[in-house]
Amino acid sequence: MATIESVLTETRVFQPSEAFVKQANVSGMEAYQALCREAEQDYQEFWARRAREYVSWHKPFTRVLDESNAPFFRWFDDGELNVSYNCLDRHLASRGEKTAIIFETDDGQVSRLTYRELYVEVCRFANGLKSLGVAKGDRVVIYMPMGPQAVIAMQACARIGAIHSVVFGGFSAKSLHERVIDAGAKVIVTADEGLRGGKAVRLKDAVDEALGLGGCDTVEKVVVLRRTGNAIAWNGARDVWWHALIEGQPESCEPVWVNAEDPLFILYTSGSTGKPKGVQHAAGGYLLGAILSMLWVFDYKDSDIYWCTADVGWITGHTYVAYGPLALGATILVFEGVPTHPHPGRFWELIQKHKVTTFYTAPTAIRSLIKLGADLPKQYDLSSLRLLGTVGEPINPEAWMWYHEVVGQSRCPIVDTWWQTETGSNMIAPLPGAIPTKPGSCTLPLPGIAADIVDEHGHAVPQGQGGFLVIKRPFPSQLRTLWGDPARFKKAYFPEDIAGGKYYLAGDSAHRDQDGYFWIMGRIDDVLNVSGHRLGTMEIESALVAHPLVAEAAVVGKPHEIKGEAIVAFVVLRGARPAGEEAKQIVAELREWVGKEIGPIAKPDEIRFGDNLPKTRSGKIMRRLLRAIAKGEEITQDVSTLENPAILDQLREVV
Ligand code: PRX
């Protein structure tokens, strides 16, 4: 990949400015190293001390880490707390009138909620959910547009101990259906429509369609937020308006105290099989990870206006919109729309208008904004910014430099944060007042995070050599299991052949440079990263073969200038290999089909047809070969085991 090649030659180092270091929560390299040493000296006490300091416990814990049933680790497991209490109630006395959420809609309307107002909204909605029979441990699927109500719905679930499972509004009815069934949801919370870039997204229709597919017998009610007011179908026995549900509900709702290990949420993500994984997080450890990373990596201060651009449908939107900042009493900006609507300067305009201090976005957004107007940020006053962040995929040094110079005006440190749905919060990232940065590197692990790079047996690799990224010790914010599938959890994340199943295997490859800095190289499994969205090749393949015309399909990624990776599908039809106009038509049809099966983000960028796929004599699809073909590379690998070498020429042909 171009990214990897360019980062390998990257030698620039950026020291944090003296002014930044002076005011930083972790100030100077020595302070960082002292934290790391503290964690090494007494690992459990390191986390326990911070859990006591930053989390409000209803019943304090006496046990820190229970490893007796590894890898099903338990943290703080005799403690009781409520995450919503930590995000709302505990701020009321000191900052009840502080703005919690600044919300800007797609069409530019701005509204605000103070902590007290947010508290009231969460309580009313929590009471509403209770009136529908939702109780502790019940699952609630949230399929909503980005907005304060999505956060309110999440917080309301947390308040009553219900487990939410947010499904990104860009996923199709089919994807929603699969997740609703897997989670056994009792209630779905949605909206009539979402609004993005001036276009309506028919969310309620998708819910109706999902439920119409059958098998969702656990679902009793669908709560519908009126967002656009356009007409929708209505099932009087099942559907309830959000506004009707909260009408007359009391403005307070006693938090349900849960065990630290009780699940806070499930979030589905892609793995190497066709079935998404329900990543399950625990209330106590997750909250601690969110809080500490806000303080350490985002150098959070009470005066910040914090803007993480992620949708709450992704882990980034969970940890750095819905939970982390609120747990610290931050003012956050929530934006409904897209970076480019109604003009390509929208993000910069938002930063200027709301005096954003901390801006956290994905490399794919940065690259597309460069393309739309590399000089555009200069037309806006971005002097409020003090810290920039990126997440979700490797950032190429060119994009990093632009972000640094043009957006951050060479003043703001950049935190390139490596982490995953499974890790719950940042794992490897610079503490901006301590760790010098290098464009393209996520730098060093957070204090207490035992990240390392190992070979296939779990032995550390020499510096500079690539290997598997692992985390060698349990940490509070890690996933606890996969919902309903503990065996898959164990196999996917703690495989026996690597150090006897003792290490958390992240699924990424990485190498380390002479300063110990981590450089992420990409996934080691069949997972693609398209515009920072994680997609399984198998999921896309299953969607394609579900089409009546398709006999077989193989999906690979290829480097893409803006998206990071593009999706290339190699397809064998049941009938003859199509050509010309017919091929074009089938491509369009299959792309639409995948959009309906999974969601528009999964539509292949390219589809190529062959009479067959390249396979070994034992029948395995030669994916490495397909990746080379997709990239247009010379084939240097041994194709002697290939049963049908002639099809390679067919697969080189772009429709
Ligand atoms: O491959 C890594 C990439 O995104 C994967 C995790 O995806 P997801 O669970 O959807 O979470 C994304 C947001 C946390 C990782 O396995 N990734 C994430 N952050 C980075 C990254 N790759 C390189 N650099 C990063 N900063």
UniProtKB/TrEMBL annotation:
Its cofactor is Mg(2+). The keyword Ligase applies. It is an enzyme of class 6 (ligase). Mg(2+) binds at residues 545, 547, 550. Keywords: Acetylation, ATP-binding, Ligase, Magnesium, Metal-binding, Nucleotide-binding. One of its GO terms (molecular function) is acetate-CoA ligase activity. Its EC number is 6.2.1.1. Acetylated. Deacetylation by the SIR2-homolog deacetylase activates the enzyme. CoA binds at residues 196-199, 316, 531. The modification N6-acetyllysine is found at residue 620. The keyword Metal-binding applies. Residues 89-474 form the AMP-dependent synthetase/ligase domain. CDD domains: ACS (cd05966). Residues 32-87 form the Acetyl-coenzyme A synthetase N-terminal domain. It catalyses: acetate + ATP + CoA = acetyl-CoA + AMP + diphosphate. Residues 539-620 form the AMP-binding enzyme C-terminal domain. PROSITE patterns: AMP_BINDING (PS00455). ATP binds at residues 392-394, 416-421, 508, 523, 534. Catalyzes the conversion of acetate into acetyl-CoA (AcCoA), an essential intermediate at the junction of anabolic and catabolic pathways. AcsA undergoes a two-step reaction. In the first half reaction, AcsA combines acetate with ATP to form acetyl-adenylate (AcAMP) intermediate. In the second half reaction, it can then transfer the acetyl group from AcAMP to the sulfhydryl group of CoA, forming the product AcCoA. Belongs to the ATP-dependent AMP-binding enzyme family. This is Acetyl-coenzyme A synthetase. The gene is acs.
